[in-house]
Amino acid sequence: FFFCCWILFGVQMFICNQEHYGYLPVPLNTKQTLEEEVESFSHTFTEALIDFKLEISRYLHIASKPKDTMAFNQVYLINLKHREDRRDRMLHSLEVLGIDVTLTDAVDGKALNSTQLRALGIEMLPGYKDPYADRVLTKGEIGCFLSHYNIWKKVVELQQQQVLVLEDDVRFEPSFKSRLNTILEDVKQSGLLWDLIYVGRKRLHIKHPEHWVEGVKNLVIPDYSYWTLGYALSLQGAKTLLEAQPLSKMLPVDEFLPAMFNKHPKEEYMSHFKQRNLKAFSVQPLLLFPSHYTGEPGYFSDTETSTIWDDETVATDWDRHHIRGDRSRGDKNLTIYCTIQNTDESGDFL
Predict the structure, then answer these.
(1) Domain Glycosyl transferase family spans what residues (predicted)?
(2) Taking the CB of residue 66, how many other CB atoms lie within 10 A of it?
């Protein structure tokens, strides 16, 4: 582009790093193939979708790209119903990447108060406090946990051998699909037994090196980590997480997972979970990152901005739902509903 502007036409080019105007594909070298060029452009397209809504011209007909679930039985995408912007962006991105996904309704924690949560058998882990905000769980964190928990239950109910779980605020690294497929094939060939593999995470103990997994490229044994942007989960992994009975001692899901593979820095939290033998690994380099970081334009997190656990008096749609249910069925058994919707439409579970 610079060559065309300056050398051929004498037009000087200036770089502005204060405004975001769009994206350019990374130039390929002479040895790269057409397939690599397609992957490069696909990545550029998914990056642009984070900031811009790109619509196909109604005058063009583009054939649908073949899609599959890679090496997984199913790929789950967690999304709140009223967050259509995130859902549309993720579905478009996954379409570009050729990944077949199952949309899963997230639990809106804001639709429940603490009395209702206890009626569902949900209790906060004794003594838990957020390490940065010095607070108890927020309703957004509760909804996030229940959203993942419902998928773990479904994996066990359907006896799915391995699945991929994605949240709706991620950005994909270049060649995401082919690189993840390669790692999964290496894991299979090595005979490595695994329960959970982080595809995206926030590593916290960066001063301590993590150990590479022998015989598998681009896989490490993770230390204490945050975020559940995306992870592969095996059937045995889902069983292990459910057997810990986390609803009766809830903490944020990204604090629960390190406790289950015995890498949480607070022993008093881990002591509530007797079997901390989750076989956890992480891809390295990571293949998923957040679409936005704190302070960036477009960043919003309901897990951090929602109200805290202790809210006894707010009437919600949960009450009306169960009053109607009890009258019509006489059913006193309580379950966790993914489709609960709050009248407050200001945010989502992330």
Answers:
(1) 73-256
(2) 7
